[in-house]
Amino acid sequence: MAKIQVTIKNVDEDAFSELKAEAARKKLHVGAALSLAIEKWVSESKKPLLPFSKWKMIKGKDKPGYTSESVDSILYG
Asked: Is residue 30 situated within a structural domain?
């Protein structure tokens, strides 16, 4: 894998500090840890969403079915 040098602006300071600390604990360079984070984010963004045809309604007096909150949870985690 080819390596490039990048400059990144407007990164959340706390998030970057956590990344650096975790990278140090795992004995990784910050660039390697950032590459892993990017790879994970890209692979997760490519996962298909659950199509409506696969949804199952739950019926019963105490189970009214999916609410908008349930749908958000299913789609976005």
From this structure: yes
Residue linked to tokens 């407007």: 10
Position 5 in a domain: no
Among 43, 35, 27, smallest CA distance to 4 is for 35
What's the token pair of residue 32? 């390697």
- How many structural domains compose the chain? 1
User: Is residue 53 situated within a structural domain?
Assistant: yes
Q: What is the pTM of this model?
A: 0.58
Residue 60 has what DSSP assignment? S
Tens of pLDDT, residues 32-54:
999 999 999 998 888 777 777 77
